[in-house]
Amino acid sequence: MPSTIQEIFENIDEGFNPDKAEGVDAVFQFVLTGDNGGDYWIKVVDQQATVGEGLHDDPTMTLTATANDYLALVNGELNAMMAFMQGKIKVKGDMGLALKLQAMFDMG
């Protein structure tokens, strides 16, 4: 179980499920605020995931949350749908991709 945001993105391959990424060609931007936050992106194309730090030029979907809420989500301590409905997680862009993101990376 990751204990920092950086750990999540450094070990992204461990939770990645290429079978669930079939047909996906997208860039997921993460804007994580507060203590230990940061900006990261994951590009998924040809059933492979590439990670980068910072802001991507052309994200397909942007997820904004506090670093603590995102960490809780990844660790299964926060329900993604509830967090979204409570405004703890904001998604800009393709909502369908947000749901695929959960499946591809085994979240919440």
Detailed description of the structure:
This protein has 108 residues and is an alpha+beta fold. The protein has a single domain (5-104), classed as Nonspecific Lipid-transfer Protein, Chain A (2-Layer Sandwich). It has helices spanning 5-10, 12-15, 67-74, 80-85, 95-104, and strands at residues 26-33, 38-45, 48-53, 61-66, 89-93. A five-stranded mixed beta sheet has the order 3-2-1-4-5. The longest helix has 10 residues, at 95-104. It is globular, with a radius of gyration of 12 Å. 21% of the residues are buried. The mean pLDDT is 92.
Provide tags for this entry.
Nonspecific Lipid-transfer Protein, Chain A, globular, 31% strand, 5-stranded mixed beta sheet, 5 strands, 5 helices, 108 residues, 31% helix
CATH superfamily: SCP2 sterol-binding domain
Report the CATH topology name: Nonspecific Lipid-transfer Protein, Chain A
Percentage of residues in strands: 25-35%
Q: Residue-averaged pLDDT, rounded?
A: 92
Total strands: the figure is 5
Sketch the major β-sheet.
Answer: 5 strands, mixed
Cross-sheet strand order for the largest sheet: 3-2-1-4-5
Structural class: alpha+beta
Determine the number of helices (DSSP H or I, runs of at least 4 residues). Answer: 5
Q: How far is the first residue's CA from the last residue's CA?
A: 12 Å
- The appropriate CATH architecture is 2-Layer Sandwich
Q: What order do the helices and strands follow?
A: HHEEEEHHEH
Poorly predicted runs: none
Give the helix proportion (percent range).
25-40%
- Name the shape in a single word: globular
Number of domains: 1
Task: Please report the first level of CATH classification, the CATH class.
Answer: Alpha Beta
